[in-house]
Amino acid sequence: MSNDAAVTKDLIQTLEDGKDGFAKGAEKLEKDGETALAGTFRDLSASRATMSDELQKIAAAYGDQIEESGSVAAKAHRGWMTVKDALAGSDPDGVLDAAEQGEDHAVSEFEKALQSDISPEFKTVVQRQLTDVRSAHDQVKALRDARR
């Protein structure tokens, strides 16, 4: 597996974790009557799905097979995976706290990817996606802070 494939695999998992976390957060927020926040979380979930799809297409163009392996799936400490369970009992503030923690992890994963030995073409995509991830992080953080 190429370095690009290994990094892509990790980033796809991070993006999928975020997609699922935002979707679960949207469900919880909707149940709590926070429809505007729920809509924002649904939009962020859709954005993560689009980013993941882009990386999967890039990997396929390189000829790399990116599939979720047991080792990647078993890394339950990754980003949103550690906070999704906390969403069930949380109030909207708790959901925003969990989302901000998940986004901290996503930013970290993308920054780590940029430090890896990846192709220049792939690095350009990762840099662009990191910009989007940072923007989502800042948006979630601002929403959280506005409620305090």
Distance between the termini: 46 Å
Q: What oligomeric assembly is this protein in?
A: single chain
Low-confidence stretches: 69-78
Radius of gyration: 15 Å
Number of continuous helical runs: 6
> What is the number of E strands?
0
What is the residue-mean pLDDT, rounded to a whole number?
Answer: 85
Instruction: Classify the secondary structure makeup into a structural class.
Output: mainly alpha
Order of SSEs: HHHHHH
**Biggest sheet layout:** none
Shape: elongated
Helix content: over 70%
Amount of beta strand? under 5%
Write the layout of secondary structure elements.
Elements: H1 3-31, H2 35-62, H3 70-73, H4 84-87, H5 92-115, H6 120-146
Helix pairs in contact: 1-2, 1-5, 2-6, 5-6
Kindly describe this structure.
The structure is a single chain. The protein has 148 residues and is an all-alpha fold. 78% of the residues lie in helices and 0% in strands. It is built from six helices and no strands. It has helices spanning 3-31, 35-62, 70-73, 84-87, 92-115, 120-146. The longest helix is centred in the first third of the chain and has 29 residues, at 3-31.
Key traits:
about 150 residues; mainly alpha; 6 helices
Structure, briefly:
By secondary structure, the protein is mostly helical. 78% of the residues lie in helices and 0% in strands. It starts with a helix and ends with a helix.
